Amino acid sequence: MGSSRDIMQTYAEKEVRAHFKKCDGWECRQVPSPYVRDMTCILSREVRGRKETVVLAVSYDEEASTLSLEAVAASLNRKSLNGQYLIVPKASDVSAIPKPVQVIFMESFGYVDDRLVWLSRKKNAKRYLQSEAPCTAETATAACEPHAA
Predict the structure, then answer these.
(1) What is the C-alpha separation between 56 and 72, in angstroms, rounded?
(2) Runs of H (alpha helix) within 1-148
(3) pLDDT tens digits, residue range 34-90?
(4) What is the C-alpha separation between 108 and 9, in angstroms, rounded?
(5) What CA–CA distance (Å, rounded) separates 58 from 105?
């Protein structure tokens, strides 16, 4: 048996669930996107009697755009909207994204040599290793001071 779903949509849903977990109360409602390639969602949850609503779009374009995100946000009441998120592949150009939109980079896809690649394959994933901040000896402090007994 085959599946009628696109594998990219499956990975997009995994990325959304990784950042907006059901155990934190997030409910995801997928809405039609004005652009065929993008996936758009409205996420909401109740926190201490107050409803939080965010708009999210997943884009696989190398030069990320907020057009689909803006179209969905325009359909909602601005007062009830608590944030806008855009999920894009690693190494995407996000320089044109406005400040209120929070960008989340995918763990499963990225651009290598102007090509979208699946990062789960070891040969592609090694290009995007997380860089750790270097630790210097001057900033280190003792965990506990010796005391006289």
Answers:
(1) 9
(2) 7-19, 67-74, 122-125
(3) 777 788 999 999 988 899 999 999 998 899 888 888 888 888 877 778 899 999 999
(4) 12
(5) 10
With H, G, I as helix, E, B as strand and everything else as coil, classify residue 116: strand
- How far, in Å, CA of 28 to CA of 17, rounded? 9
Of the candidates 17, 71, 62, 14, the residue with the CA atom closest to the CA atom of residue 40: 71
Question: Buried b / exposed e across 29-50, counting CB within 10 Å, b at 16+?
Answer: eeeebeeeebbbbbbbbeeeee
Q: Which residue has the tokens 């960008």?
A: 103
CA–CA distance, 40 with 59 (Å, rounded to integer) = 9
Predicted model pTM:
0.75
Q: Name, in order, each residue with C-beta under 8 angstroms of 124's C-beta and a sequence gap of 6 or more.
A: 110, 112, 117, 118
